[in-house]
Each structure stands twice: as C-alpha cells, then as structure tokens.
Design a protein that fits this description.
The complex is a heterodimer of chains A (113) and B (114). Chain A is mostly beta strands and 113 residues long. Chain A has strands at 5-7, 10-13, 19-24, 31-37, 44-50, 53-57, 64-68, 74-78, 87-94, 103-104, 108-112. In chain A, strands 2, 4, 5, 6, 9, 10 and 11 form a seven-stranded mixed beta sheet that branches. In chain A, strands 1-3-8-7 form a four-stranded antiparallel beta sheet, with no helix packed on it. The relative contact order of chain A is 0.33. In chain B, the strands form two sheets. In chain B, strands 2, 4, 5, 9, 10 and 11 form a six-stranded mixed beta sheet that branches. Helices cover 0% and strands 61% of the residues of chain B. The chains are: A mainly beta (113), B mainly beta (114). Chain A binds chain B through residues 4, 33, 35, 40-45, 48, 50, 55-56, 58, 90, 92, 94, 97-107, and chain B through 4, 6, 32, 34, 36, 42-46, 49, 89, 91, 93, 95-107.
Chain lengths: 113, 114
C-alpha cells in the first residue's frame, strides 16, 4: 500500500502566474482534500473532491480550483497568483467521503515572488 | 463555522516529564477530534484521534481526553523523549453534508530538552 504523494516538492512562481499542483491519493482512497498551510499556522481547508466532484469548499476565492481524475488523483490550480498564496499546500486522502480520518501527503512548498 | 483554539503556542519540557496541550472548539456538532504531529519540513502525521462517544483514548505514551460539555479536548504525552519534539496540531471535524472538513488549531511547538 502506497501513501499520499504530491508533486512537485517545491515551486517558485511570480505574481500573476498560474500554478498546478498534483496529488496521488493513498491506495484504495477515493476522497481527496486540499489544505493551505501558511508559515507558523495550521492547515486551512480549501476544498474536497469525491468521485471527481467537488464535495465542499472553504473560504477561498474562485481562482483556487481543482480536479479529480478517475484514478482518484487530484490537481489544485491557482490562477492570478498573489504574494499571500506563498504556503505549503497539502493534500489528504480518505477511504471515502463519509470517513473523517485523513492522511496527509508531504506537501508542495509554493513561493510567489 | 467551526473555530479551534489551541494552547500553549510553545511548550518546553525536560526529557521524561509530561506535556499537555489543550484545545477548545466552537461547533457543538463536531464529533471527531484528531491530533497531528508535524516535524520540520514533513507531512502532518496522525498520532491519535477521538470520537465524541468516547471520553478518553490511550496509545502507549499518548492519551487524548474529550469533554463535550465544555467543548474542549487535550493531548497528554507522558515520559517525553527528544524525538517527541515537533509541532502538534489539534483539529475538529465538522461535517457539511457528506464532507468531513478538518478545522485546525494554530499548533503547539513542543521542545523536549535532553
């Protein structure tokens, strides 16, 4: 059984650019949640995907969007990057949307200059 | 929405001592409370969790207690070791429909001095 993986590990972008982050869920898990963790803070919920549909969203603007694929891997897309988007982006997978236990990936460190 | 407060923000103990981290939550509908340990540059790792139908849960040197009436829960680490040094996060799960969103506290930096 493989754990949650994310790519890339680090990314540097400039203000106004667009970025795509990727997540492969743990084997057998069909639900993926994305979180933003600013330096020195706890993770904040962005949204969750279950069976390729968005299944709940936190207080993030529409320029944060996502996708889930038939193999349950997921992407987080951020358009029109702002300096405050600099953070660690974590994805977490669950066996299904009715299970509250979530297992995190190693994260992608995004720096916006 | 749910709000989780965590205290203290930093905690320094001597090896072998106990450490206690406390969290309060606001949403009485929350019924799942996990604790995560995050070492520098690494992923949050689930170390223990508790559900609202249980008041206490233990796993070796780690225990969590829950007081639903007061809406607070605590992490207890006994016989601390230097490898326990990390940032610890509490979280509460609020279900909107079928979506289990975790709301996290701001974290506690635990330092265990040898």
């Amino acid at each position: 059984e493989t754990g949650v993986t994310q790519s890339p590990t680090h990314l540097i972008k400039t203000r106004g650019q667009q970025v795509t982050l990727r997540c492969s869920s743990q084997s057998g898990h069909n639900t993926v949640s994305w979180y933003q963790q600013a330096l020195g803070q706890g993770p904040q919920f962005i949204f969750q995907y279950y069976r390729e549909e968005e299944n709940g969203r936190g207080n993030f603007p529409p320029r944060f969007s996502g996708l889930q694929f038939p193999n349950y891997s997921s992407e987080l897309n951020v358009n029109a990057l702002e300096l405050d988007d600099s953070a660690l982006y974590l994805c977490a997978s669950s066996p299904d949307s009715s299970t509250d236990t979530q297992y995190f990936g190693p994260g992608t460190r995004l720096t916006v200059l | 929405g749910e709000n989780v407060e965590q205290h203290p923000s930093t905690l320094s103990v001597q090896e072998g001592d106990s450490a206690v981290i406390k969290c309060t939550y606001s949403d009485s509908a929350s019924n799942y409370f996990p604790w995560y340990k995050q070492e520098l540059g690494k992923r949050p790792q689930l170390i223990i969790d508790i559900r609202s139908n249980v008041g206490e849960k233990k796993d070796q040197r780690i225990a969590v207690t829950l007081n639903k009436t007061a809406k607070h829960f605590s992490l207890h680490i006994t016989e601390t070791q230097p490898e326990d040094s990390a940032v610890y996060f509490c979280a509460a799960s609020s279900s909107g429909g079928s979506n289990y969103k975790l709301t996290f506290g701001k974290g506690t930096l635990l330092t265990v001095n040898p």
